Every structure is written in structure tokens, then in C-alpha cells.
């Protein structure tokens, strides 16, 4: 091969190698810049999870119920009202469950006599969405009476309640049904229905009836 041709070949190889080093260096530099960008958090795309319509409705209901019991207008209620707010929202924990499992998760870093909406809402949302404290028959019955007992005195007047039962919905009480109900529920001497006593009586009779139906009779030998 002539000298000129060999010189050209060597120059071409040298240039090719030089270009290759430049490309490798560029990749390395780009990777390093990418790492720096990741370390700085630049370029990260936040993941936004949109709440469902049901969750939004639950949040709104929780806030509205809470504010009904917020007597001072400061988005807080006394601890004693927490169970009442929960019952209003359709959850029925016992006093023991409220004291031991619920209130501790709703208290601020420095516990006091109040529970704020900020602490109440997320815990209550979890309870509602998982239906952790569903209503029992007694609770449903008491809640129905309390909706009428607007002054929270523990009873309703018989005459007032009779009028409600005669007019309720599309299936008002008939006279015989009304008489049967009042024979069991009303306190004759006061003309009132003490609904907690009535509810306890109903549940007791229901339990007795269920026990009869589920009992296994022993055959006579």
C-alpha cells in the first residue's frame, strides 16, 4: 500500500476512535446529569389520585354533621359529643369502643377536652367507608325516636307521636295498629313514651322469640 494511502487510513481510524470516545463521554455525562436531576427531585411527576364521588359525599356529610354539634363555631366538639355525631352519621360504637379505640385516634398532640374537625374527619371517613360500627336493631329504633325528640329529653308525648304515626309516609298506622303499639309503649301516668325503655322491651322480646325458634327440643326417651 502506498504511503499516502496508509497515512489516510491511520488518520481515519484515529478520527473514528476519537468520535467514539466523545459519544461514550456524552452518554456518561447525560447519565450523571440525570442522576443529579433525580437527586434534586427535578422532573418527578406527582401522582394525583382523585377521590370518588362517594368519598366526597362522605366528607361533606361528616363536616355537616360535625358542625351541627359545634356550639362555639370553632370546628371542634367536646369529647362527650363524639359518639352522638357518629350515631348521627350511622355508626354505633359502644361507650367503651369510643373511649378505648376511637377518641385516642382523634386527639391532638396535646389532648384536651375537645376533638377538632381536622382530627375527626379522616378517622370518621375510614369508619364509614369500612362500616366498622353498623347499627343493631336497638340502635335503629332509638335513632328513629331521637329524630322526633328534638330537645333530647328521652321521651316523646303520646298525642304528638300518634299524629305522626297517622300521617307518616304512604303507609300510616291504622287505628288497631296504633292501639297495639301504644298499649306496649306508652306510660299511662305521664302520657309519654320513654323510648329507651320501649326499645329495651322490644329487643328483649325479640331475643326471647329468637331463642324459642332456634332452641333444639330434646326428645322424650
UniProtKB/TrEMBL annotation:
Domain EF-hand, residue spans: 136-171
Ranges of Basic and acidic residues composition bias in the record: 29-38
Region named Disordered: 12-43
Domain of life of the source: Eukaryota
GO molecular function: calcium ion binding
Protein name: Calmodulin
Organism: Hondaea fermentalgiana
Amino acid at each position: 500500500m502506498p504511503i499516502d494511502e496508509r497515512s489516510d487510513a491511520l488518520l481515519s481510524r484515529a478520527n473514528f476512535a476519537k468520535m467514539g470516545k466523545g459519544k461514550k463521554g456524552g452518554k456518561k455525562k447525560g447519565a450523571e446529569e440525570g442522576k443529579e436531576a433525580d437527586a434534586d427531585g427535578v422532573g418527578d411527576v406527582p401522582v394525583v389520585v382523585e377521590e370518588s364521588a362517594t368519598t366526597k359525599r362522605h366528607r361533606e356529610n361528616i363536616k355537616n354533621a360535625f358542625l351541627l354539634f359545634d356550639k362555639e363555631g370553632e370546628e371542634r366538639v367536646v369529647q362527650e359529643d363524639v359518639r352522638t355525631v357518629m350515631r348521627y352519621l350511622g355508626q354505633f360504637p359502644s361507650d367503651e369502643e369510643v373511649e378505648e379505640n376511637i377518641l385516642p385516634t382523634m386527639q391532638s398532640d396535646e389532648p384536651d377536652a375537645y376533638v377538632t374537625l381536622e382530627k375527626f374527619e379522616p378517622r370518621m371517613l375510614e369508619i364509614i367507608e369500612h362500616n366498622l360500627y353498623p347499627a343493631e336493631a336497638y340502635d335503629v329504633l332509638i335513632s328513629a325516636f331521637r329524630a322526633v325528640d328534638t330537645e333530647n329529653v328521652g321521651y316523646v308525648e303520646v298525642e304528638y307521636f300518634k299524629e305522626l304515626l297517622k300521617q307518616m309516609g304512604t303507609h300510616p298506622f291504622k287505628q288497631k295498629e296504633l292501639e297495639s303499639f301504644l298499649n306496649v309503649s306508652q306510660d299511662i301516668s305521664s302520657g309519654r313514651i320513654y323510648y329507651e325503655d320501649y326499645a329495651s322491651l322490644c329487643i328483649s322480646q325479640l331475643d326471647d322469640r329468637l331463642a324459642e325458634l332456634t332452641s333444639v327440643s330434646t326428645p322424650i326417651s
